[in-house]
Design a protein that fits this description.
Elements: H1 2-10, H2 13-16, E1 34-36, E2 39-41, E3 46-49, E4 52-58, E5 68-72
Antiparallel strand pairs: 1-2, 3-4, 4-5
Pfam families: DUF1496
Protein name: DUF1496 domain-containing protein
Keywords: Signal
Length: 93
């Protein structure tokens, strides 16, 4: 009996329906970006805002593959990363 059901399901109208192929593309590598007013900017992009120049750079100075954020530049044109947050230790007795 199960063999007959399997055989019938192979030739059902749904199984025999001809459909158009769907092409699904995926980027080979997802690149992080900075966003501004609905536009994407890659690492190193410069943006002038309120008289200051911002650069699209890594969120933390020591990461090379992390997320990107807009950072202000210093007088020499280097990104000014925010000071790392120091978390206090919680001790449970």
């Amino acid at each position: 009996m199960p063999a007959i059901l399997l055989l019938l399901s192979l030739f059902s109208p749904i199984a025999m329906a001809v459909t158009d192929p769907v092409l699904i593309t995926q980027p080979t590598q997802i690149q992080p970006v900075c966003w501004y007013q609905g536009h994407q900017y890659s690492q190193g992009a410069l943006l002038e805002m309120s008289g200051r120049t911002l650069v699209c750079a890594q969120k933390t100075e020591h990461e090379t593959n992390g997320s990107l954020i807009w950072l202000p530049l210093d007088e020499q044109g280097r990104p000014l990363w925010p000071e790392p947050v120091r978390h206090s230790k919680i001790r449970i007795n």
